[in-house]
Amino acid sequence: MRLILWLMPSAVSAFAYAPNFITKIIQEDTQLDPFSETIIESSKIKTRFPPEPNGYLHLGHAKAVSFNFAVARMFGGACHMRLDDTNPSKEDREYVESILEDVKWIQGGLYDGDAPWDGKVRKTSDYFDLIYDCAIFLIQNGHAYVDSLSADEMREYRGTLTEPGKDSPFRSRSVEENLQLFQEMKAGKCAEGEHVLRAKIDMASPNINMRDPTLYRIKHESHQETGDKWCIYPMYDFSHPISDAVEEITHSLCTLEFEDHRPFYDWTIEKLLPSGLISATPRQIEFSRLNIKSTVLSKRKLIQLVEENHVNGWDDPRLPTLSGLRRRGVPPSALRLFCERVGISKADSNIDYSVLEDCAREVMDEACSRAFCVLHPLKVTITNWEGGLEEFTVDKHPKLAEMGTRVIPFGKSLFIERSDFFDLEGPEGKLSGGIPPKGFKRLLPNEMVRLRYAYVIQCNEIIRDAESQEPIELKCTYLPDTRAGNTPEGMSRVQGIIHWVEESTGVKCQINQYDRLFKVEEPGKDSGDFLKDINPDSLEILPGAIVEPSVLTDVVDILKKIDENKEIYHSTLAYQFERSGYFALDTSSTGPESLVLNRVATLRDTWGVKKDEPERNRGNTRNEKDATPVEDIRRVAFRAATIVSADPHPEAENLLVCKVNCGDPEPRTVVAALAGQVELTDLVGSKVVVVANLKPAKMRGIESEAMLLAASDSDSGKVELLQVPASVPDGELLSFEGKEPSLPDDMLKSKGAIKAWERAKAGLRSTSEREVAFFDGSKVYRMMSSAGSVSTASLAESVIQ
């Protein structure tokens, strides 16, 4: 096994490339610098991932897997895969197989060969004979003894965090007696709980883990690897450093709960080095564990969820298990990106689940083919359509021509989303007083809408259910001259665009829409029982969805590949269903007779948005069903605002601290690099343009909650804030002439969203007439307010930033 690429540090996709305290320690230990241009061909660095095979791996393990393998890659070393199988009562072959599969999956694409780890899969049970010899050596040298206290008595003798422990009455047994008793324990002559082997260290130690910790206990159970050979088994804290030393692990990287165990780790290595049984001196280093909001990572709780049927097995897509995330369709590269963003430190953190979903969106947006899927179908009949089917050939991905094209059939009968038609004359119209929702630009009775890639249609008649009066079919006409986005001369441009699927070629499928498994961030914290906090709406099944035929073609192809290669996963086939979200093929899919897809993530984060609370006017929270893919410039919230105060920054001569009324309940603080370039007295009262949905950022200790836009001339160095007509209300969302109204993100915080802002910003300039505009190739779109265009005072053909 070797890396696929080792050209230079940037060739490795791993978050360990962000320098952290552990990589710095290893740099000091090795004098190797993976951040330089020097190629590290190979080194003696060895890490390991040693899970217990008593459960399925979850998100917390993802961080440990990623970091241990990444460090080995960074330093040209190797990472071992070891199963810590020291507790036969809780271990199972099912867990072993799932762990190995998960590690292969999350590291997929980074290595050649069958597995990412170096050499064979190692097990602690491989070293049982050696660990036993180590215990004998400690007894012989007076560093271990057989204790016959009961479990309750041992707890009593151990002391507390504030009171020292006291010596066991059996601590003074002779070496000969200890050897004899330990050999009797091994021979099966003692009952469980009758004796244990303990290290002889210090019962008064302030570290309770050093108060004569247990090394071996009796368990009359068969082991999945060694059978009935052993009836005594080493404790993890004892077997762990020995296994590391035998494998010549250089850096034993683990989570912070083992920090207090490190003194015993080092003690074990120190006492055993003279034995000759081990020769290496691994170094244990701890980092913070991963905590995720709105889920649980406790093995006990996960087992309870599975065994009590609160979920549908270990691979339920709502679980944080790696098998569940894989079935849901989260790409392994998205999990690695998530670990990268979480980072490595010693500080505890509680990460919002939306961070993982943002990573999934970012990876899938770049990698997934687009397709149409109607989740809640409403039939549309084109009454003036004549003939058979017409085909539209469109790109599978709007930015990746190399992905090829797909064919979308069009004909007389179609399906559209029920939510894309607002029935002014039906039940929903009566509730709204016959007024469509604010900003609704889709289909209305007697109005028009454009079918994406196809034609404009007009609704002429509504067929209703006799009892509910709900629409069950729309009779529409199409405008032949509007094919493929064309707007005939003299016709007003139709604003709304919706997706659709042709009836005769559409494929029925089941959509599983997954959401948070728990309705609170910390399950059980307030209720006292985490099961009471399960989200009853965590799964919505849509059995009657209709997907375009190209998806079925892809499904048949991948199912054939899966039959030939069992290591290909169903969820490898994933899509962005336009205006709906990201979806992946479920393992239960068998073909056209049973086609099931799982929602991986919505197009935008919609969890926990409270509609009844006043929100800052950053962007525009859109219903996910309305979430048509939006071009970059329309994702940015350009808003009119008034500067109400401006003062010098207390710590930076080039910065000003302004209070700006952006239409929110309270003015925002905006820090701008305008000192010395504009007069303070000229700023107050100015009607300006702000970018209102950027992520707040601290500038020399003061958080800036928006950005002021200004024009600048590189030759003269002159800077001017953009000017908005004085009559425009604060908070008004500005638009661009010739483009559809802006639909800004709530906040431009993901890497993809920030890139969208940067691309949008690159096209902003002032025209020769001093009007602010967005330049897109040869096309120019003026920035407009309700009272006219936005302009500069004097700077023409200048950069806007």
Q: What do these coordinates show?
A:
With 801 residues, this protein is an alpha+beta fold. Among the domains are: 125-246, Glutamyl-tRNA Synthetase, Domain 3 (Glutamyl-tRNA Synthetase, domain 3), CATH 3.90.800.10; 373-498, Ribosomal Protein L25, Chain P (Beta Barrel); 633-800, Nucleic acid-binding proteins (OB fold (Dihydrolipoamide Acetyltransferase, E2P), Beta Barrel). Helices cover 22% and strands 24% of the residues. The chain is built from 16 helices and 42 strands. Strands 12-25-26-27-23-24-13 form a seven-stranded mixed sheet. The protein has a seven-stranded mixed sheet with strand order 21-18-19-20-14-17-22, with no helix packed on it. A five-stranded antiparallel sheet has the order 30-29-28-31-34. A hairpin with a 4-residue loop joins strand 18 (448-451) and strand 19. The longest helix has 16 residues, at 59-74. 40% of the residues are buried. Mean pLDDT is 89; it is low at 1-17, 609-616 and 620-628. Residues 632-735 form the TRNA-binding domain.
Which helices and strands, and how do they pair?
Blueprint: H1 21-30, E1 46-49, H2 59-74, E2 78-83, H3 93-106, E3 122-123, H4 128-140, E4 144-147, H5 151-158, H6 175-186, E5 196-199, E6 214-218, E7 232-234, H7 236-246, E8 251-255, H8 262-272, E9 283-287, E10 291-292, H9 299-307, H10 322-328, H11 332-342, E11 350-351, H12 353-367, E12 369-371, E13 373-374, E14 377-382, E15 390-395, E16 405-410, E17 413-417, H13 427-431, E18 448-451, E19 456-464, E20 471-479, E21 497-498, E22 501-502, E23 507-514, E24 539-547, H14 549-564, E25 574-577, E26 581-585, E27 596-601, E28 638-648, E29 656-661, E30 668-672, H15 680-683, E31 687-691, E32 697-699, E33 702-704, E34 707-708, E35 710-712, E36 719-721, E37 735-736, H16 751-762, E38 764-766, E39 772-776, E40 779-785, E41 788-789, E42 799-800
Parallel strand pairs: 1-2, 2-3, 8-9, 10-11, 12-25, 14-20, 18-21, 23-27
Antiparallel strand pairs: 4-5, 5-6, 6-7, 13-24, 14-17, 15-16, 17-22, 18-19, 19-20, 23-24, 25-26, 26-27, 28-29, 28-31, 29-30, 31-34, 32-33, 35-36, 35-42, 37-40, 38-39, 39-40, 40-41
Helix pairs in contact: 7-8, 11-12
